[in-house]
Amino acid sequence: MSQRTLGPNSYEGQHEHRAPSDCPVCGEHLSVTRLGCTSCGTELAGMFAACPFCSLGSAELDLLRVFLTSRGNLREVEKHLGVSYPTARQRFGEVLVRLGLAEEPGPSAPAAAPPASAPKTRDQILAEVAAGRLSPAEAQRLLSAG
Protein backbone atom coordinates (compact mmCIF):
# COMPACT_ATOMS: atom_id res chain seq x y z
CA MET A 1 0.00 0.00 0.00
CA SER A 2 1.50 3.35 -0.99
CA GLN A 3 1.62 6.22 1.42
CA ARG A 4 0.03 9.46 0.40
CA THR A 5 1.44 12.78 1.57
CA LEU A 6 -1.23 15.25 2.49
CA GLY A 7 -0.65 18.90 1.76
CA PRO A 8 -1.32 21.76 4.16
CA ASN A 9 -4.84 22.27 2.77
CA SER A 10 -5.96 18.67 2.37
CA TYR A 11 -7.84 16.15 4.44
CA GLU A 12 -7.87 12.57 3.20
CA GLY A 13 -7.35 13.93 -0.32
CA GLN A 14 -10.10 16.55 -0.01
CA HIS A 15 -9.52 20.25 0.49
CA GLU A 16 -10.06 21.57 3.97
CA HIS A 17 -12.19 24.65 4.38
CA ARG A 18 -11.19 27.51 6.64
CA ALA A 19 -13.33 27.63 9.72
CA PRO A 20 -15.27 30.88 10.00
CA SER A 21 -14.31 33.10 12.93
CA ASP A 22 -17.70 34.80 13.31
CA CYS A 23 -21.19 33.32 13.59
CA PRO A 24 -23.11 33.64 10.30
CA VAL A 25 -26.37 34.11 12.25
CA CYS A 26 -25.58 36.70 14.93
CA GLY A 27 -22.06 37.85 14.05
CA GLU A 28 -20.53 36.95 17.42
CA HIS A 29 -17.12 35.27 17.65
CA LEU A 30 -17.21 31.47 17.28
CA SER A 31 -15.38 29.14 19.69
CA VAL A 32 -13.56 25.94 18.77
CA THR A 33 -15.42 23.16 20.57
CA ARG A 34 -14.39 19.95 18.79
CA LEU A 35 -11.06 18.54 17.56
CA GLY A 36 -10.59 15.30 15.66
CA CYS A 37 -7.68 13.04 14.71
CA THR A 38 -7.68 12.08 11.02
CA SER A 39 -5.50 9.05 11.73
CA CYS A 40 -7.44 7.17 14.42
CA GLY A 41 -10.76 9.00 14.57
CA THR A 42 -10.40 10.19 18.16
CA GLU A 43 -12.48 13.29 18.92
CA LEU A 44 -12.11 15.79 21.75
CA ALA A 45 -14.90 18.13 22.80
CA GLY A 46 -14.50 21.23 24.94
CA MET A 47 -13.64 24.92 24.69
CA PHE A 48 -10.31 25.42 22.87
CA ALA A 49 -8.39 28.60 22.15
CA ALA A 50 -8.64 29.61 18.52
CA CYS A 51 -5.64 30.45 16.36
CA PRO A 52 -5.68 34.19 15.55
CA PHE A 53 -3.86 33.54 12.25
CA CYS A 54 -6.60 31.15 11.10
CA SER A 55 -9.04 34.01 10.56
CA LEU A 56 -6.73 35.72 8.06
CA GLY A 57 -7.47 35.43 4.36
CA SER A 58 -5.01 33.99 1.86
CA ALA A 59 -3.84 37.45 0.71
CA GLU A 60 -3.12 38.45 4.32
CA LEU A 61 -1.28 35.19 4.99
CA ASP A 62 0.74 35.72 1.81
CA LEU A 63 1.68 39.21 2.99
CA LEU A 64 2.82 37.80 6.36
CA ARG A 65 4.77 35.02 4.64
CA VAL A 66 6.64 37.54 2.47
CA PHE A 67 7.24 39.83 5.46
CA LEU A 68 8.66 36.99 7.55
CA THR A 69 10.82 35.47 4.80
CA SER A 70 12.26 38.92 4.03
CA ARG A 71 13.04 39.31 7.76
CA GLY A 72 10.68 42.24 8.24
CA ASN A 73 11.66 44.22 5.16
CA LEU A 74 8.58 46.16 4.03
CA ARG A 75 10.41 47.14 0.81
CA GLU A 76 10.32 43.44 -0.13
CA VAL A 77 6.60 43.34 0.67
CA GLU A 78 6.16 46.44 -1.51
CA LYS A 79 7.92 44.71 -4.43
CA HIS A 80 6.01 41.45 -3.95
CA LEU A 81 2.62 43.17 -3.86
CA GLY A 82 3.50 45.58 -6.66
CA VAL A 83 2.30 48.57 -4.63
CA SER A 84 3.85 51.70 -3.14
CA TYR A 85 5.64 51.59 0.20
CA PRO A 86 2.83 53.50 2.01
CA THR A 87 0.25 51.04 0.65
CA ALA A 88 2.35 48.03 1.73
CA ARG A 89 2.74 49.61 5.15
CA GLN A 90 -1.01 50.28 5.39
CA ARG A 91 -1.88 46.69 4.43
CA PHE A 92 0.58 45.34 6.97
CA GLY A 93 -0.99 47.63 9.60
CA GLU A 94 -4.42 46.25 8.72
CA VAL A 95 -3.16 42.70 9.30
CA LEU A 96 -1.77 43.76 12.69
CA VAL A 97 -5.18 45.20 13.61
CA ARG A 98 -6.93 41.96 12.53
CA LEU A 99 -4.54 39.98 14.74
CA GLY A 100 -5.20 42.31 17.70
CA LEU A 101 -1.58 43.52 17.73
CA ALA A 102 -2.38 47.15 16.93
CA GLU A 103 -5.27 49.51 17.49
CA GLU A 104 -7.52 50.52 14.66
CA PRO A 105 -6.77 54.04 13.55
CA GLY A 106 -9.47 56.46 14.62
CA PRO A 107 -11.28 58.83 12.29
CA SER A 108 -8.82 60.99 10.45
CA ALA A 109 -8.64 64.35 12.09
CA PRO A 110 -7.07 67.12 10.08
CA ALA A 111 -3.42 67.29 10.99
CA ALA A 112 -2.16 70.54 12.36
CA ALA A 113 -0.28 72.42 9.68
CA PRO A 114 3.45 72.46 10.27
CA PRO A 115 5.14 75.82 10.63
CA ALA A 116 5.86 77.49 7.30
CA SER A 117 9.60 77.16 7.92
CA ALA A 118 9.37 73.34 8.12
CA PRO A 119 8.38 71.87 4.73
CA LYS A 120 7.07 68.32 4.72
CA THR A 121 9.45 65.54 3.78
CA ARG A 122 8.74 63.21 0.86
CA ASP A 123 7.83 60.40 3.28
CA GLN A 124 5.41 62.65 5.18
CA ILE A 125 3.70 63.68 1.94
CA LEU A 126 3.38 60.05 0.77
CA ALA A 127 2.05 59.00 4.17
CA GLU A 128 -0.63 61.70 3.97
CA VAL A 129 -1.64 60.47 0.50
CA ALA A 130 -1.85 56.89 1.82
CA ALA A 131 -4.00 58.06 4.74
CA GLY A 132 -6.31 59.96 2.38
CA ARG A 133 -5.53 63.36 3.88
CA LEU A 134 -3.83 64.62 0.73
CA SER A 135 -4.77 64.18 -2.92
CA PRO A 136 -2.22 62.71 -5.33
CA ALA A 137 -2.33 65.93 -7.38
CA GLU A 138 -1.54 68.05 -4.31
CA ALA A 139 1.25 65.64 -3.34
CA GLN A 140 2.73 65.92 -6.82
CA ARG A 141 2.64 69.72 -6.57
CA LEU A 142 4.37 69.63 -3.17
CA LEU A 143 7.00 67.15 -4.35
CA SER A 144 7.72 69.20 -7.47
CA ALA A 145 8.07 72.40 -5.45
CA GLY A 146 10.62 70.85 -3.09
Automatic annotation (TrEMBL):
Top-level taxon of origin: Bacteria
InterPro entries from the UniProt entry: DUF2089 (IPR018658), DUF2089_Zn_ribbon (IPR053957)
Residue ranges of every copy of the DUF2089 domain listed in the record: 23-54, 59-101
Pfam families named among the record's database cross-references: DUF2089, Zn_ribbon_DUF2089
Protein name per the record: DUF2089 domain-containing protein
Lineage of the species this protein comes from: Bacteria, Bacillati, Actinomycetota, Actinomycetes, Propionibacteriales
